[in-house]
Automatic annotation (TrEMBL):
<keyword id="KW-0274">FAD</keyword>
<dbReference type="InterPro" id="IPR050741">
    <property type="entry name" value="Acyl-CoA_dehydrogenase"/>
</dbReference>
<protein>
    <submittedName>
        <fullName>Acyl-CoA dehydrogenase</fullName>
        <ecNumber>1.3.8.7</ecNumber>
    </submittedName>
</protein>
<dbReference type="GO" id="GO:0050660">
    <property type="term" value="F:flavin adenine dinucleotide binding"/>
</dbReference>
<dbReference type="GO" id="GO:0005737">
    <property type="term" value="C:cytoplasm"/>
</dbReference>
<dbReference type="GO" id="GO:0033539">
    <property type="term" value="P:fatty acid beta-oxidation using acyl-CoA dehydrogenase"/>
</dbReference>
<dbReference type="InterPro" id="IPR009100">
    <property type="entry name" value="AcylCoA_DH/oxidase_NM_dom_sf"/>
</dbReference>
<dbReference type="InterPro" id="IPR009075">
    <property type="entry name" value="AcylCo_DH/oxidase_C"/>
</dbReference>
<comment type="subunit">
    <text>Homodimer.</text>
</comment>
<dbReference type="GO" id="GO:0070991">
    <property type="term" value="F:medium-chain fatty acyl-CoA dehydrogenase activity"/>
</dbReference>
<dbReference type="InterPro" id="IPR046373">
    <property type="entry name" value="Acyl-CoA_Oxase/DH_mid-dom_sf"/>
</dbReference>
<dbReference type="InterPro" id="IPR037069">
    <property type="entry name" value="AcylCoA_DH/ox_N_sf"/>
</dbReference>
<dbReference type="InterPro" id="IPR036250">
    <property type="entry name" value="AcylCo_DH-like_C"/>
</dbReference>
<dbReference type="InterPro" id="IPR006091">
    <property type="entry name" value="Acyl-CoA_Oxase/DH_mid-dom"/>
</dbReference>
<keyword id="KW-0285">Flavoprotein</keyword>
<dbReference type="Pfam" id="PF00441">
    <property type="entry name" value="Acyl-CoA_dh_1"/>
</dbReference>
<keyword id="KW-0560">Oxidoreductase</keyword>
Length: 401
């Protein structure tokens, strides 16, 4: 990664920040920002103004080139200053992760058909991997995948159910992960590109969840004899688990980037409240209980920023970064939840009301500790690595003294 790349990222981030603060934030009170995410009408309006400002999908160049992860971090943090910022700029989940995956794995024909409309902001997408708990399907453990894809003539036929599918309502592009038979007796999965809507992809219900920033909300989906042509396999057959890691490592990091921006905004609002609000004869910030919480916020925000930059640097080397993204996702999600929680506490009754965006940021960041792998799963994975490396060191005559 070059110095020019970081300079470019800083310049774009500065434009994004001005746009989000001046143009996007006023939309936060728009009634079209619903409990299931912004409506399609609001998404189109936000993207129209972003496109006019030359900020549509700003981390991807007109030639398809992608900023480095470190430079992207600057841009996505600025977009996250409002929950509507990533939507307006076309850098929100799941599209940002899906665009990255398609850019890495899709064929040139698939990129023209499925990726180009996403990058232009003319289409939205959904990633169909997680399955309902009442089916005992795949959640944090993808090997429990129950959705099946079987050969059917020159294509495939898919059946199963999916859960917590973000943005399925209103999506034009779907990436469906299904169990396939590689002939070796092992659990294998394949990813398929799907045109949406399709009558074989049925929304059972849109779920009620504590977060509300992503268009289309989160749905339970039934896949009923979904027919997919053979040329719509994403990448190679039976490589779905590998491709999931290609997508998830940077996607976890992108979430960290966006929510860091949101929590910086919450901190700004809480600090302004603590300076102007008085109690017991002085501003709240002059009471140690409040001032120290704001100081802890400042420390946590800087730690999160440094962790993100470190992980982004690892990914920029071309490494898969699974361990680094797991560590970063746990550390940042928990640090940012602490920031959001303290902001609510500082603001008292105002903090739990809808009078400011702090209440929404608190809800969104709480959900962040679960999606893309809950903290416990990442810690379990890291513990397994520690055990393996410790035993290997002992075999070489080190450790276990």
């Amino acid at each position: 990664m070059s110095r020019n790349d970081l300079d470019q990222g800083q310049a774009i981030a500065a434009r994004v920040e001005r746009f989000v603060r001046d143009v996007v934030i006023p939309y936060e009170k728009d009634p079209r920002a619903t409990s299931h995410g912004p409506t399609e009408d609001l998404v189109v309006e936000l993207r129209t103004v972003a496109r006019a400002a030359g900020l549509m999908t700003p981390h991807i160049g007109a030639d398809g080139s992608h900023l480095s992860q470190r430079a992207t971090a600057l841009v996505l943090q600025a977009s996250g200053l409002s929950p509507l910022g990533p939507v307006a700029l076309n850098v929100m989940a799941p599209d940002e992760g899906n665009m990255y995956l398609l850019g890495q794995v899709a064929s040139e024909a698939q990129k023209r058909r499925f990726l180009a409309p996403l990058v232009s902001g003319q289409a939205r997408s959904a990633f169909f991997m997680t399955e309902p708990a009442d089916d005992d399907g795949a959640g944090a453990d993808p090997s429990m995948l129950k959705t099946t894809a079987v050969p059917d003539g020159d294509g495939w036929r898919i059946n199963g159910r999916k859960a917590f599918i973000t943005g399925a309502v209103g999506a034009s592009v779907g990436i469906v992960m299904a169990r396939t038979d590689a002939g070796d007796g092992k659990v294998a999965a394949t990813m398929f590109l799907v045109d949406l809507p399709d009558p074989a992809v049925r929304v059972e219900r849109v779920m009620e969840t504590i977060d509300s920033s992503m268009p289309g909300g989160h749905s339970i989906i039934a896949l009923e004899d979904l027919r997919v042509p053979g040329d719509q396999i994403l990448g190679a057959p039976h490589q779905g688990f590998k491709y999931a890691q290609v997508r998830l490592s940077p996607a976890r990091l992108s979430h960290c980037m966006r929510w860091l921006g949101a929590c910086r905004r919450a901190h700004e609002i809480a600090a302004a409240y603590a300076v102007k609000r008085h109690a017991f004869g002085k501003p709240l910030i002059d009471h140690e209980g409040v001032g120290f919480m704001l100081a802890d916020n400042l420390i946590a925000l800087k730690q999160a920023e440094l962790m993100i930059d470190w992980c982004a640097g690892v990914l920029d080397t071309g490494a898969l970064g699974t361990t680094e993204s797991s560590m970063t996702k746990v550390a940042v999600s928990e640090a940012l939840f602490g920031v959001a929680d303290r902001c609510v506490q500082i603001m008292g009754g105002t903090g739990v009301s809808g009078d400011t965006v702090v209440e929404q940021i608190f809800r969104e960041v709480r959900a962040f500790r679960i999606y893309d792998g809950p903290s416990e799963v990442h810690r379990w994975s890291l513990a397994k690595r520690i055990k393996r490396e410790t035993l290997e060191a002992a075999a070489d005559g080190f450790g276990l003294a």
